Amino acid sequence: MPYRDFSLLGATAKLSGLAQRAYDLTRPTALSPARLQSMKASACGFDLLYATERLDEEALAALQQLADEAKLVEQFMVMKKGGVLNRIEGYASEERQVLHTACRDIFSEQPHMPEATAKAKKELEKLRIFLDDLASGKVVNRNKESFTTLVQVGIGGSDLGPRALSLALQAYALPGREARFIANVDPDDTAAVLAGLDLSRSLFVVVSKSGTTLETLTNEELVRAALARAGLEPKEHLLAVTGEGGPMDDASRYLASFYMFDYIGGRYSVTSMVGAVTLGFILGFEALVELLRGAWEMDVTGEKTDIRSNLPLLMAMIGIWNRNFLGYPTCAILPYSQALSRFPAHLQQCDMESNGKSVTRQGKAVTWKTGPIIWGEPGTNGQHAFYQLIHQGTEIIPVEFIGFRRNQRGLDIKVSQTSSQQKLVANMLAQSLALAQGKDDVNPVRRFAGNRPNLVLVAERLTPYQMGALLALYENRIAFQGFCWNINSFDQEGVQLGKVLATKLLHILADANTQIPPASEAKSVEEEMLRQAGML
Amino acid sequence: MPYRDFSLLGATAKLSGLAQRAYDLTRPTALSPARLQSMKASACGFDLLYATERLDEEALAALQQLADEAKLVEQFMVMKKGGVLNRIEGYASEERQVLHTACRDIFSEQPHMPEATAKAKKELEKLRIFLDDLASGKVVNRNKESFTTLVQVGIGGSDLGPRALSLALQAYALPGREARFIANVDPDDTAAVLAGLDLSRSLFVVVSKSGTTLETLTNEELVRAALARAGLEPKEHLLAVTGEGGPMDDASRYLASFYMFDYIGGRYSVTSMVGAVTLGFILGFEALVELLRGAWEMDVTGEKTDIRSNLPLLMAMIGIWNRNFLGYPTCAILPYSQALSRFPAHLQQCDMESNGKSVTRQGKAVTWKTGPIIWGEPGTNGQHAFYQLIHQGTEIIPVEFIGFRRNQRGLDIKVSQTSSQQKLVANMLAQSLALAQGKDDVNPVRRFAGNRPNLVLVAERLTPYQMGALLALYENRIAFQGFCWNINSFDQEGVQLGKVLATKLLHILADANTQIPPASEAKSVEEEMLRQAGML
Questions:
Q1: Which of A206, A267, A284, B21 is the most exposed place for a label (fewest CB within 10 A)?
Q2: How many CB pairs under 8 A join A and B?
C-alpha cells in the first residue's frame, strides 16, 4: 500500500480551515442535552462522551474523510495480517511485523495470523500448566511452602504495562498472592524491594526479549546474589520471559521459560508473556483470559471504517484534531480511579515511544507535528494539584478522563447523601463541563476562558475484561495516529545515542575503577562531564 | 514595591533578540571542557551543571539584568519578611502573607518573622514530645503495643509533598515504622490501604487546613467506620493537622492536634506540620530537623543577588529563558533516583498550581507565557519509555536531571567493572550530552537534531538534609518565576469552578438517591451529563 504524507491528504487543508472557526464551547447553548446525546460512541463496555471537544458535524465529517484518505483501517488490517510495518523504506530498519494483536486473536475462529496466534496459545498453555502446578503444590519452595510473591524484573515495556495493570487489578488478586516490580538500575530500587520480601517464598520473573538489557541483567545479578546470601538456590526462584534461543533461554539457570517474539514490541507486550506471567500469578488464569478477551473485542472494534463506531479510531482522530489543527502540544490522561494511577505512565511510554518521531516511513523529515507529550495523574487528586494550570494557565491541555460507575472493592460510605463513588464520578463530569464552558466573572482572577477540549470514557467497573479493552483502545489509537502521520510507530531509534554515550562514560569509569591511567592529556568532554559531576 | 509587567522589563526585549541566535550546542566544539567547568554553580551540597543549556555569557548577563530589573531577590525578601504577597490589587483575593520559609528560619539567630517562627517552633516542640511519648511507650494502643504505621489522610498539598518525601527518605526509616497515604475520594483508595493494615497498631493523621476538604472528611469517615468495625476507639487512633480553632481542632475527637497557619499554602506546607508529623514518625525528630536545616540553608542562598551564586534564582532564570524566549511549553523533571520517583508529582503541583495563571497581580490579562507543564518519571526507567520523543519528537522538552553520587541503602554490585550507581549516574550524564549535542547520520532515522536544553543537579547522597535543600530549591525557583511574571503564585482560584459544578451534580445525585422527582421537565446540561455517563 502506498503511504501518503499527512500534509498531502486533501482533508488536512479542509481541517485547517475548519480549525479557524472550531466549535465554541463557551456560547450559552453550546452544550445542549441534544449535543451530549448525539456525541457519544460506545464499544466493549465503554461509553465515549465527546460533546466537550471543539468539534461539530462538519469537522467530524472531515476527520472521517482524513481517516478514509489515509486508509487507516486498511493499514490496521495490514498490521493485523502480518504486514512488515516496522520499517523505513530504503534505509536500514528493524523490518519486522507488528503482531501484538495476534496474542488476543485466540478467540477468533479464523485468526488473522494463525501461526502467531498458535504460538501465543502455546505459551498460554505453558503458563496455565505452570499456574496449576503452583496452585496444586507441585511447584513449591524447598520447605514445601507455596510461593506468595512474584517479582517482575524488567524495564520499559517489560515493566510499565505489567506494573500498571497489576495495580489496576490488585483488587481481584488471589488470596496470598502479590506482585512486586524491580526496574531501575538504581541499586536502591532493588534494595528497597528486596528489603520487604520473604525471599524463600518469592519467585522472580526476569523479562528481556534480547536477554541483553543492561538494567535487567544487572538487577538479576543483585537478585541472584541476595538469594544466594539467604542460602537459597537462585535457579529455583527465577523464571525467564525472553526470546526463544536467546542468551536467557537457559533451563540450567531458570525454573521455567516463557517466550516473547520479535514481532511484538516491548511497549505493546502487556498481553504477551511479558505481562501474562505476573498477571496470571496474581489474578489466576481465568481472569487473565478475560483481560485478553477485552483486548480482542476492542481489536475487532478497530476494524470498523465508520469513526463513530470505531472507538480507537474516533479517539485517534480527535487527538489529531487537537494536535495538528488546534495545535496543542500535550495530552493529559486523567483517570478517576486510583487503581489506574500508573496507567498514564504506561501510556506515556506506549504513545511517546511510538509516535515521538520526526521522519516518515520513507525517511523524509516530517513537516507536521507528530505525537504529543502524554502525562497525567488520577483524579480527584489532580484537582488539588495541577488543575489550576489546566483551567487558567497559558497552555491549553486536551484532557482524557476515564471513570467507572462502580468501585472495585465494595467499600463505600454515604456522606451528605452521596457515596464516595458518586462523588468521584460527579467530580470528573463537573471538570469536563467546567473546562469546556468556562465562566465569566467581574473579578478577573475568577474568570475561566473555557474551550478546553476534553472527552470522557466511562464504563461500569474496572474488571479484567474492561482493563483489557482499555489497554487495546489506547494501543490501537496510537497505531492509527502513527499511520495517519505516516511514521513508523514501532521502532525506537531515538534511544540509541544515549546508550552509546553511556557506554563511553562507563568505559572511563571502569578504567578509573581499575586505575588505568587516562589515555592522553587532552580531556574529552565525556571525561570532563564525569569530573564536574564528581564521579572522577 | 511597584510591580512591573514582564513585557515592560528592558531585558525582555534584549533576551528576545538573543534567543534568535541562542547558543548552538550542536557545533563540534560547543561543549568544551572549559565550558563545562565555567557553567557550574553550587550551593547546599548541590552542583548545578548548566553547560548543556542554550546559553552564553551574553544571555546570562541579560538574565541577570532581568532578575535585577524585576527585583526578584527584593521580592523574595519581602515574602520572607511577611509582605502580603498573596493578593491581587483592587480585587477580592486571599490577602495573605506567604511564610513557609518561617518554618525553616528556626536556625536563624534573628529570624525574619519572629512570631511565625516562634509558632513553628512551638508546633515542632509539641511534635518532639509526642514522638518521645511514642518511643517511650507513653502513647500506645489499648493492648500496650507501640504504633507501627502512620497513615496520612489528606489531598493535594496535604498529600503529594509528604508522600514524595516519605518515599524519598524511606531508606532511613526507624525500625518498625512505616507511612501510608490515603488521598483520593475514590473509595477503592481507602479500601486498598486499609486492607493492608493492622488497624490496632495504626495511627491516622487527618490533614486539612480548613477542616472542610470534601475528600479528606469523607475518607476520615471511612477510616473511623473501619476502626469502629474492628472494635477500636477511633479517637485513640486519629491525629489532626489543621487550623487552630477550626472545625477539626477538637480534642474530643483526636488524640492530638498540630496546627497549620493561613500564611502557609498547601503546596508549600511540607516543612510545616503537614509533612512534619509523618516524616517525624518514620524518620525520628533529629532527621526531621536535618531536613528543615537543608531547606533553611537553601532559603538563605536565595537571598543572593548574583544569579551564579543563587541556585534557585539561576534555575528560575534558565527556566524563563526556555519558557519565554525559546518558547517551550513543558519542563521534564527526571530524577536518576528511584527514591525520588514521586518528587516530580509534588513539583507538578507546586509549580503548576503556583504559576498556571493568566492574570497579573494588578488583575490584567498577561500577554506572556507563564508556568510550563511539569512532568517526569525517574531515570533510567524513562530511557526505556518516553525518551524517544525527547530525543527525536517534534516537541522540544527542556529537561532537569537530578542525581546522586552515592546510593542510600549500601547494596550494590559490580557488573562489567562498574557499580549500579556508576551506571545510573553515567546514564544521566550521557543523556545530558546526547540531548545537547545530537548526532548526524546517513540514515535519517538515526539522526538526532540536538539542541535539546537540559541541566544536571548532582549531590553526594539523598539524605534528609539534601532532600530539604532540594525541596526549597524548587519552592524558591517557583516563587522567583512567579515574581518575574508578575503573577500571584500563592492563590488557586482556578480550582473553584470545578468545585461549584461538582456540588451541582452531587445535588442532582443526592435527589436521585432520595427519590426526589426532578424539579422540571426541562433537563439541564448537568443532568444530561450524568444521564449519558450512566449515573442516573
A1: B21
A2: 522
